[in-house]
Amino acid sequence: MKKLLLPLRLAAVGALMLIAAACQSAPPANTNAAALWKKIEAQNADTGCDRDSQCHTIAVGAKACGGPERYIAWSDRAQDGAKLKQLVAQHAAARVEEDKRGHVLSNCMMAVDAGAVCRAGHCVQNAN
């Protein structure tokens, strides 16, 4: 009877080791870009403005076939944009790497930069 239980015990120990190793493995690849996106949102939380000249757009993300995913509005009233530009560049590089690893395809439609304007005290993308 003890001889029969030994293989079961070994199998159980092996399964537990496999589960423990899986729990300690690296997070999915997209968390890097996702974490960077949260930092971009935090950096760009203050879009307050007094006039249109304080409003700008910046290309964010990266499509698999090239070019940005979209543009976001930001204000130079609260920041000079240097940190935002750095985060956006890191995010685009992370998206390119994720797309390569995941063999992602995209619609290849060009994202249009409509510019940004000051509306109701906040920089927003121009509707034109």
TrEMBL record:
Species, as recorded: Duganella vulcania
Range of residues in the leader sequence: 1-25
Top-rank taxon, per record: Bacteria
UniProt keyword Signal, yes or no: yes
Organismal lineage: Bacteria, Pseudomonadati, Pseudomonadota, Betaproteobacteria, Burkholderiales
Name under which the protein is recorded: DUF4189 domain-containing protein
Keywords: Signal
